[in-house]
Amino acid sequence: MGRLGRHDRLRDRHTDRAAGDAGAGVTLRIDVPDADAMHGFGVRLGRALRAGDLVVLTGPLGAGKTTLTRGIGEGLGVRGPVSSPTFVLARTHPSLVDGPPLVHVDAYRLGSPAELDDLDLDLERSAVVVEWGAGMVDGMAESVLEVRIDRRDDDTRHVELEGTGPRWVDDQQVLAPR
């Protein structure tokens, strides 16, 4: 099967998850006009993340997942540059400011949640961002922040954040628009 066919299969698997299947949560929807704004949104989100946070990014190729993750890395104050870990699967970026490191994972080429679990992500001491991770992280953490990015025809992005589990229910202001 060609690469595009595999991408379609993965995309379908990653977007079929029913809303709310991980427990009570909070949802935020925003429109992001361009790459700079996506990066800035990532900086804001990164400043709110802490060790043990698991963020799952879903969206088509070119939607802005890695741009968002670069912003998250800047917000966390980690050593960069943050780039897509497609071929190495995961990269750890140590903190420069005594915060948690950023573990950036690209699950696109992984075939099962077990393969993701084999990466030994050190979730308890890190902020973990998993691109293409929907359907791959079930059971890895009690709380998960899912970020779905939809690229519109005019190049704006519609971003939907859904935080499930105690971390996001108890700390809803983290997701509040500013």
Automatic annotation (TrEMBL):
The keyword Transferase applies. One of its GO terms (cellular component) is cytoplasm. Gene3D superfamilies: P-loop containing nucleotide triphosphate hydrolases. It is found in: Cytoplasm. It comes from the Bacteria. One of its GO terms (molecular function) is metal ion binding. InterPro entries: P-loop_NTPase, T6A_TsaE. Keywords: ATP-binding, Cytoplasm, Magnesium, Metal-binding, Nucleotide-binding, Transferase, tRNA processing. GO terms for biological process: tRNA threonylcarbamoyladenosine modification. Belongs to the TsaE family. Required for the formation of a threonylcarbamoyl group on adenosine at position 37 (t(6)A37) in tRNAs that read codons beginning with adenine. Is involved in the transfer of the threonylcarbamoyl moiety of threonylcarbamoyl-AMP (TC-AMP) to the N6 group of A37, together with TsaD and TsaB. TsaE seems to play an indirect role in the t(6)A biosynthesis pathway, possibly in regulating the core enzymatic function of TsaD. This is tRNA threonylcarbamoyladenosine biosynthesis protein TsaE. It comes from Amnibacterium setariae.
